[in-house]
Amino acid sequence: xxxxxxxxxxxxxxxxxxxxxxxxxxxxxxxxxxxxxxxxxxxxxxxxxxxxxxxxxxxxxxxxxxxxxxxxxxxxxxxxxxxxxxxxxxxxxxxxxxxxxxxxxxxxxxxxxxxxxxxxxxxxxxxxxxxxxxxxxxxxxxxxxxx
Length: 147
Fold this sequence. Notes:
mainly beta, 1 helix, 9% helix, 5-stranded antiparallel β-sheet
């Protein structure tokens, strides 16, 4: 299949409202910042019949005890959707971000679960696409130490 046919097929699926997960950047830590993001084509007219898309850090992430800014982002549309200051205990965490299409919007959720305890921390935010057609979007969350 030629490159132009592949691009045409991807464009057709995206235009039909499909969520196409293509890449997932793993979370990393140690430099004061950690990321859990995914890049994919998003429709400018989402609806609730479309599939939810998620990204989870394989193997989890070790986080040092500290105060962090936990930010939900949509970097392609240049949006900071939500910022929460949170104190995290040291330990291994499972970190998952999901994007759920709704009627004309997407709701992004992020969760952190400390493996040694029950319960998790959650945050969510809703964003509205720009109305400019199907677009490649990198979405997810990040943690940055409060300094």
